[in-house]
Amino acid sequence: MLYWMTTHRRAAWNAPLDAAVAWALRLDRPLVVLETLACEEPWASDRFHRFIIEGMRDNREAFAGSPVQYYPYVGQAPGDTDALLLALAQEACVVVTDDGPTQVASEAIAALAGRLNVTLEAIDGNGLLPMRATTQVYPSAHAFRRYLQKTLHEHLPHAPSARPLRRLTGAAPALPQGITRQWPIADLERLATADDALAAFPIDHDVRPVATRGGTQAARACLARFLDSGLPRYGEDRSHPDREGTSRLSPYLHTGHLGVHEIFTTAMRQAGWLGVLPARATGSKAGWWGVAPELEAFLDELLVWRELGFNMCALRPDYAEYASLPAWARATLAAHGDDPRPFRYSLEEFETARTHDRVWNAAQRELVRDGRLHNYMRMLWGKKILEWTDTPEAALAVMIELNNKYALDGRDPNSYSGIFWVLGRYDRPWPERPVFGTIRCMTSDSAVRKLDLEAYLRRYGPDSLFD
Questions:
Q1: To 5 degrees, how large is the angle CA 376–CA 381–CA 387?
Q2: DSSP string, 23-89
Q3: Residue 315 Cα distances to 110, 130, 302, 413, 422, angstroms
Q4: Residues in a beta bridge with 73
Q5: Rounded distance, CA 35 to CA 234, Å?
Q6: Of the candidates 454, 446, 239, which has an alpha carbon nearest to the alpha carbon of residue 362?
Q7: What structural domains does the chain harbor?
Q8: Nearest Cα residue to 348 out of 201, 198, 206, 205
Q9: Whole-number Å distance between alpha carbons of 193 and 188
Q10: Residue of 307, 327, 227 lying closest to 259 (CA atoms)
Q11: What pLDDT does residue 362 have?
């Protein structure tokens, strides 16, 4: 029995792993978990490789001593991981894998299905709501929130197991020696710690690893810190970059090092939630769960906004294309396509934070140096790119490239939600302005007036990165 782990990179609270365990028990076969990391994935770099490899190291520890054989493999050339998977699948009776919402994940599963002679199951473990529980693409957070309030109670009892391996017995199976000779088990200690360990891999070595550590252990520590000290201040502090009031869980959710079911269960247990929900769905983002306001606000981000992005990516293949924007947004941007731009910058100038705007430059330095963008700063960052490029299509290309190249949570449905929100997705028309039309406008001056930015601007000032 083979579980190919690609998106939900964790050893617990993992629906595909539960399915693989069930198959192993049903067929009385040993279970092999193959976790792969391909070098040919878009925007592959030292940063993302190191973060995921740190998670592989945690998974090796989690599976150690269990009846499961864990097989971590880091591809050394394009096609390596596919070849290994096909070879190992020849030894399997069933293959289970992770069902992801993005085009890259869907294409990989489809390609695999056409080349296997055994049963293949792709299991959705992305959110509390299964991605395909509805066939409707929701145009707004309010509409999606109201749908969740009507239906989510049906799915809450079906959380994946916190201890999925407890039902298995026996010894871990041995891997075929011919396979491990051709595709050696990854040296995770060296790959996760040595400065030159990734030098031989054909990935982008200019995007360096960051201080944020990957893996389930780091993710759980981050969650514990947030629930203990960040959550009580979440409602007031999350919009202020100087206060560091956000959860910082998005990289772990993106890589699958932590699942949303574990976050939800841990937070609600700590809050003493009794599992009672109102019978009437209002679409209101406050008061529905019956917990403290700051936890209500966090749940709205975790469940409504996050899973709204999965809804779009799972059901619209063009989710990353300009044509997927609402008609009103495309129309107003087209009407203002010839408006004079106050400044115009190239991709290189954006990437190296060489604009006239110190607030925007600080946000870009945060992205490049630390692999993250504060939520509010990401919105401002995108709005100014729209204002300073020749066309909205060009602005979209710049945002996708920079975000996916540097952000630890890049390439995620949430990333695309944030980027496309800049251009009108999930938003509404606002008073008309040059360049923006009726797309919502944001300015650096208003950010300085509204937010605590003094320490942020010092931390990501000119001396912090490029100059």
A1: 130
A2: HHHHHT--EEEEEEE-TTSTT-BHHHHHHHHHHHHHHHHHHTTSSEEEEEEE-SSTTHHHHHHHHHH
A3: 16, 12, 20, 12, 21
A4: 36
A5: 35
A6: 454
A7: 1-125 (3.40.50.620), 216-315 (1.25.40.80), 322-464 (1.10.579.10)
A8: 206
A9: 8
A10: 307
A11: 96
What pLDDT band is residue 464 in, cutting at 50, 70 and 90? low
The rounded distance, in Å, linking the Cα atoms of 88 and 35 is 12
Residue listed under structure tokens 């916190």: 162
Q: How far apart are CA 164 and CA 11, in angstroms?
A: 8
DSSP letter for each residue of 365-393: HHHHHHS---HHHHHHHHHHHHHTSSSHH
Counts of helices then strands in the chain (DSSP H, E): 21, 5
Output the DSSP codes for 226-241. Answer: IIIIIGGGHHHHTT-G
pLDDT for residue 467: 43
pTM of the model: 0.96
What is the four-CA torsion angle of 264, 267, 273, 277, rounded to 10 degrees?
-30
Return d(Cα 433, Cα 295) in angstroms, integer.
36
Residues whose CB is less than 8 angstroms from the CB of residue 424 and which lie 6 or more positions away in sequence, other chains included: 325, 326, 328, 329, 330, 332, 333, 439, 440
Outline where 173-322 has alpha helix (H): 177-182, 188-193, 216-225, 234-237, 250-255, 260-271, 293-299, 306-315
In a 10 Å sphere around its CB, with 0-12 CB exposed, 13-18 middle and 19+ buried, how is residue 390 labelled?
exposed
Amino acid at 341: R
For residue 263, is pLDDT > 80?
yes
Burial-class residue 283 by CB neighbours within 10 Å (0-12, 13-18, 19+): middle
221 residue type, one letter: A
The DSSP H or E segment spanning 455 is helix 454-459
Residue 222 reports pLDDT greater than 90: yes
**Sole residue written with tokens 């996760």:** 192
Q: Which of 76, 40, 53 is nearest to 201 (CA)?
A: 76
- Amino acid identity of residue 361, one-letter, is N
Encode 309-332 in three state secondary structure.
HHHHHHHCCCCCCHHHCCHHHHHH
